[in-house]
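The authors assume throughout that readers already know how a fold can be written as discrete tokens. For illustration, here is how one protein appears when written out as sequence plus structure tokens:
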Amino acid sequence: MNYTEQIEIIKGLNVDEGQSIRMDCPFCMRVNTFSVTKENSKILWYCFSASCEAKGSFNSERTMHDISYYIHRDDTDTDKNFTVPKNFTSPHSQDRCIRYMIENNCLSAVTKGRADVRYDPARDRLVFMIHNDLGKIIGGVGRSLNSIVLPKWYVYGSKSFPFICGNSGTAVVVEDCASACAVSEDYTGVALMGTSLTDEYSEILQTKYSEIIVALDRDATSKAFDIARELGYRSKTRVVMLEDDLKYFKPDEIREILCKNDN
């Protein structure tokens, strides 16, 4: 079936703005393998069966229902005011969320209450909620669960506070939320969501933690040393060189990796 024919079938599904549907694939007929989402009048679809080639996106005409959705929805993505959207659900409601958490060693942090994670059906993202020092949710960081939803990471609400997971006095500075969860069994994971250290993040790290370990991906080694030098003026700080992202390791392996260069 060509791309134009796929679009005609997708139009017939009548997906509403902000809606995400998991269903039997209308192309290969496999059970519960098909996902279709509509956001900002853009419809995206994808079949998770390896043998099915159904996937794509197109911009549809905005209907009165779409306009009403944006007028009345609750997710105000601003630094000053963030409300958790009412359509966010438990990550345990989606097999793909559970699979991502298992494969990236996040599940323990979620089940033990160290991380607050939700599922956003409108954007098809696993969302790591960001809490400030008072416990208030001020935003979140959403990880796309399929290859056609871009960008891979999406920030909701405030960007002034990092994603923090754990209760240790030793912070491990990592690039993404999954890695922060993976290290949280023995450390406190602090996700930069990239390789840049903002003034706000620097102040939080230097005032909250007695020791800081900078553990960025191997291709960001020079950036890791820059961050360690900046933090080292006020805090005990060191860099650990990684062969692979920490989210791919179990707690005992993470302990070994992070302790091997501890002098």
Notes: Confidence is low (pLDDT under 50) at residues 74-79.
